[in-house]
């Protein structure tokens, strides 16, 4: 399973630069991220970054300290795309026919490492962890009366099951093909912004098997600024 971080934005460049100059530094940042995942099923790590991201060697070295012998590679884009979903599609050559877990570097799980192992869950085409929340910043899963997943709603609190923001895909080529079908339907990215929820709704509409396990966690954090990040670490330290 490849662990993929689609981070090809100027916003990430700015956030990373601020973190490396913070009181905690890059080593602490990457260590916190590495604690989010069970590493035993990760075969490789792929970062998707902008050409203007000048810290590729640094982040590779620091991640290697935490992920030890796991190969680390970069896909470098010249300019920003229409969002992280579009960014991810640029990696089809690197991820074709592979299983991939897609995440971001602006979220942390600090109580129990998340373990998404598609090799032991061959019946599922995708695994999308959820957690209990009522915050409007997340997307939410709607189930029917029998408990069957129906649809994911982007940034609409229609249930208690918030989408965690970590997506494990059994075959990335399937994910890519569903995405391309959406692009044809809506005439590309110019008509609208696409989200992971759009592609997962295509999985559900095609009766693909998507598992939405509910993660019990009291220490899931998503941050958008250096101040939020430092507040998390300060609270953890105390």
Describe this structure in words.
By secondary structure, the chain is of the alpha/beta class. It has 8 helices and 13 strands. 33% of the residues lie in helices and 21% in strands. It folds into 2 domains: 1-105, Spore Coat Polysaccharide Biosynthesis Protein SpsA, Chain A, CATH 3.90.550; 121-165 and 174-216, Spore Coat Polysaccharide Biosynthesis Protein SpsA, Chain A. The radius of gyration is 17 Å and the shape is globular. The longest helix has 14 residues, at 172-185. Strands 3-2-1-4-11-6-12 form a 7-stranded mixed β-sheet, with helices on both faces. It has a two-stranded antiparallel sheet with strand order 5-13. It has a two-stranded antiparallel sheet with strand order 7-10. Strand 8 and strand 9 form a beta hairpin. Helix 2 packs across helix 3 (56-67).
């Amino acid at each position: 399973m490849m662990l993929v971080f689609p981070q090809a934005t100027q916003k990430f460049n700015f956030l990373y630069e601020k973190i490396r100059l913070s009181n905690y530094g890059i080593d602490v940042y990457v260590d916190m991220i590495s604690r989010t995942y069970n590493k035993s099923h990760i075969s490789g790590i792929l970062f998707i970054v902008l050409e203007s991201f000048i810290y590729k060697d640094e982040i590779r070295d620091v991640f290697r300290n935490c992920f030890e012998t796991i190969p680390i590679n970069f896909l470098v884009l010249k300019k920003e795309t229409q969002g992280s979903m579009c960014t991810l599609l640029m990696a089809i050559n690197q991820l074709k026919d592979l299983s991939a877990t897609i995440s971001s570097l602006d979220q942390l799980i600090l109580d129990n490492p998340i373990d998404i192992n598609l090799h032991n869950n061959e019946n599922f085409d995708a695994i999308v962890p959820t957690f209990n929340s009522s915050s409007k910043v997340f997307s939410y899963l709607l189930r029917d009366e029998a408990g069957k997943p129906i649809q994911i709603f982007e940034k609409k609190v229609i249930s208690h099951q918030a989408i965690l923001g970590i997506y494990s895909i059994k075959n990335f080529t399937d994910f890519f093909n569903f995405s391309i079908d959406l692009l044809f339907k809506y005439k590309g990215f110019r008509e609208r912004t696409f989200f992971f929820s759009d592609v997962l709704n295509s999985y559900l509409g095609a009766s693909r098997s998507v598992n939405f396990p509910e993660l019990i966690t009291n220490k899931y954090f998503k941050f958008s600024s250096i101040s939020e990040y430092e507040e998390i670490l300060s609270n953890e330290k105390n």
